[in-house]
Amino acid sequence: MAERGCFTQHGYGVRFEWGPQGARQLAPETACLVVVDVLSFTTSVTVAVERGIRIVPCRWGDERAAALAAEFAARLAVGRREVTAEAPWSLSPAALRRAPFVPRLVLPSPNGATVAVAAAESGAVVAAASLRNAHAVGEWLAAKRYGTSERPVGVVAAGERRADGSLRPAAEDLLGAGAVIAALAATADRTLSPEAALAAAAYTGTADIAQAVNCCASGRELTEDGFAEDVAVATEPVPEPDSASGAVPVLTEGAFTAAD
């Protein structure tokens, strides 16, 4: 059954939703879906793509992960706590920055990668955004004329999972999504759904983004688990709109690679 227009935010050029179901909900009416998972999938994707590594998204726990790695002639990333000298690639952006270069890497994730796979199944163009490359993504969307009534864009915050498996809206992903929406709105005249406008307001109304991410539930969890460096990478200073903007990862033939 098709979603009612009110739930697809029909009529707006820029829309905002949460999680895999949100991606599926927006997909039929959007030309591009932007996935945001600040801690840590899309931050890891930006770090990798900046190094020239192609990232193949994979649902967490997918039994086909090894087969996917073989299909793409790629390495398979391991869990943060499973990193070894022989397998130094993981969901940790700090670890990916230090790890040896590989041309392709399959990166499983319970949130961001799952949203990316759901978005890809819709046939829409899929991009990955984080706080690190929000301006770049906003500029790219504007240049491609996404966010217009003819080419709507959906920005999807991945969120986290509660112990029972339900979606936990995450502050860092709200801020990351808001950063992309604010950057696009500042670059080009776009009509924002109320949901998208509220996400942008959350970003522009937060005085200290790094402190907010460090002190929110997800940031505290990673820090308490010994991965404070990942939070630091995710909250590195965002480039100004008129400066070198960084990579825009776009899902191309099954892997995130830098857009032209």
UniProtKB/TrEMBL annotation:
Keywords: Hydrolase, Magnesium. Its EC number is 3.1.3.71. SUPFAM superfamilies: ComB-like. Its cofactor is Mg(2+). Transmembrane segments: none annotated. Gene3D superfamilies: ComB-like. Pfam families: 2-ph_phosp. It catalyses: (2R)-O-phospho-3-sulfolactate + H2O = (2R)-3-sulfolactate + phosphate. InterPro entries: ComB-like, ComB-like_sf. PANTHER family: 2-PHOSPHOSULFOLACTATE PHOSPHATASE-RELATED. Belongs to the ComB family. This is Probable 2-phosphosulfolactate phosphatase.
